[in-house]
Amino acid sequence: MKNILKFKFLILFLVLLFAIFYIESVKIENKNYLKSEIQNTCKNIPEIPDGAIKLVTKVIDGDTFLIEGGYSVRILGIDADERGYFCYEDAKRFLESLILGKKVRLEKDKENFDKYCRYLRYVFLGDKNISLEMLKNGFVVARIFENAKYKDEIISAEKFAKENKIGCKWKDLNFEEKLNWEKLKEDKLKIEIIDACSAINYIGKEVIIEGKVVDSYRSLKSNTVFLNFERPYPKQCFTAVIFNSDLNKFPQNPEYFYLNKKVRIYGIVKEYKSRPEIILKDPSQIEIGK
Question: N or C end of the chain: smaller count of CB under 10 Å?
Fold first, then answer.
């Protein structure tokens, strides 16, 4: 009887061992198949060496950007909100302030591309790890895999932001702030988008102005920044104004940051010296176009 029970336990053990082996082999096979498919799909994307220095030409969101040649890079170690979610705008603007128009070093880990044929890289500006900068300032969450490079540093940076309630990911919002943000998001979806040279016809109305910043100026006297659209001052179609009291909310040197970029401005159009303008109190009122 005991021998029969031992035999049954042995059979059960062997069946379980085979099942575990089979499941793991399927996982490995699927992983290898996916990797092969990605390599095949992305075969026309040029290889870039580990540690390559590339110019950042456009920021898509808080974890993705374009480099010279129009190729896309997905930053390893972090995950940012998509468009329409709470931290999308803040994360995108912060990443722009860090790397847009600058040369960065791209460092590999285990995988070369993701399924969208984006380069998977850690990004460095000098010695500054951009993943850690985004995390410790509370704009993104950690996204890491086992044995990843910088795993401990990434976990530590996110923990620091969480414990200190830093950034849009971790700061405490009261009910009114959350309600105002949701209302702003809904209102933007309903508002008509007009070109900058039509703004004069919308004095006193809440609109979204779209156009190119072709001229900018910072007043030495008041430290106010003026962003002029489509034509240089004094013949500009429209002006976005940032007063000194609000400058600390925006990217450093906004008169250069937004210059020669197509942007959208949200707010109420006012008239000043027969010219239309919108006063920018918060970075959520301005978005760099795609």
Answer: N
Tell me the two tokens of residue 136. Answer: 């410790």
H-state helical runs in 130-190: 130-136, 151-163, 167-170, 175-190
Provide the whole-model pTM: 0.54
| DSSP state for residue 247 in the 8-state scheme | G
- How far is Cα 63 from Cα 55, in angstroms, rounded to an integer? 16
Label residue 99 exposed, middle or buried (CB < 10 Å: 0-12, 13-18, 19+). buried
Same domain, 74 and 164: yes
Separation in Å, CA 125 to CA 88, 90, 91, 128, 191: 22, 20, 17, 5, 38
CB count within 10 Å of CB 24 equals 10
Q: Is the pLDDT of residue 279 over 70?
A: yes
**Cα–Cα distance, 194 to 265 (Å, whole number):** 10
- How far apart are alpha carbons 212 and 227 in whole angstroms? 9
> Residue 185 domain-assigned?
no
Domain that holds residue 84: 52-170
**pLDDT on residue 32:** 46
Domain annotation covers residue 176 = no
